Amino acid sequence: MAYDADCIFCKIIQNEIPSTVVYEDDVVKAFLDLTQATPGHTLVVPKTHVPDIFAYDAELAAQVFSRIPKIARAIKASDPAIIGMNIINNNGKVASQSVFHSHFHLIPRYQATEGFGMTFADNSAAYTSEKLQAVAAKISAQLQTD
After folding, report:
1. Per CATH, domain 8-143 is 3.30.930.10
2. What is the predicted pLDDT for the residue at 120?
3. What residue stretches are annotated with the HIT domain (predicted)?
């Protein structure tokens, strides 16, 4: 497995830095985020050092992503007050990624307003059907090359 000696998550995976582990196997390590946006806020981290989603190959993606529902269900089952969950993966500094080892935030939701939220601006007026089709065509063309 790839390891980056300067990466805090690689150090956590190697137990060089302590963490509060909720799940671990040969592919991922899941541990409580120190910030605890809400109680149970867990990070799921692949044991292979990959900086972001763009560095995954199909096999690693399948292995990592297949574990997320299992961990999410365990978090939800751990507290009957949990009524929802955000699963967040930031990629790149501009997208608020702060540790450049891919990771997924599983953030339990207990109520609609609890100091954490996600909202998106409604830009639908700026996108005609033709403009949406043009954006989709550019993306689809790139999928043909993979």
Report:
1. no
2. 79
3. 8-116
